[in-house]
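Title: [Solved] IrrE N-terminal-like domain-containing protein 3D structure

Original question kept below for reference.
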Amino acid sequence: MSLSPVFYARQLRHELKLTGAVDLSLVADRMNIRIFEEALDAEGYLIQKGKEARIIINNNIGYETRKCFTIAHELGHFYMPHHQESIFRCLARDIQSYCSDRKLEYEANEFAGEFLLPAQELEKRLLQPPNLDMIKEFSKIYGTSLTATAVKVVQLTCEKIAVVLSESGEIKWFRKSESFPYWINKGPLHEWTYAYDFFSAGKSLPETPQKVQAMAWCQGVSREELIFEESMAFPNLNIVMTLLYIPYEEECDAFWW
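Solution (posted by the thread starter after getting help):
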């Protein structure tokens, strides 16, 4: 029985004596892996032959943070002993969705998330309920994308929170904390959400969390229940990342107003 991807990510950081943000070029050098950028039919490849290994990433990837996550994803394939294929072809939908239905790709994402954003370090920084400002700060510190950072924070927090990614007006994926009690609606965004207003009418998104009806985002809730939406747009990619919060009742007045 194999150990978890998080275990292997922590083990590699320990072996390499890493703290804080990771320089993936140096990591690859120390692991005798060469990194290339080429025109590809996928997001990235890991190619292993004997004692040699190469990571090839798509040269059309426009964001450095996305390149880093792809490299860390391929490192996961290389390092985890039960990932034994000589060639891994990793598609954008597997790496970017954070919920691939291909087991080894999902595990490589989990490895990358922990290797780039170590839980033991982030937990020390989670001193208040998460919000977009906190995620931006962590993203800057660790050199990671906002989506990867948000997913990691949601995994670690005890708060009732979820991160949702929408593209072209449709919810593509979500991740929720253990305490978040609802399932998120998939498919087209509800017209009561601020994310919908951005896609449908080009409206600017509010800079602070806004109260909306929970049924606009979640399944199995009554019309009376409310939730807080904090959304951030990436116009060049035509996507919106949303944090959904359910603050504890006794904290609502102090935290949200």
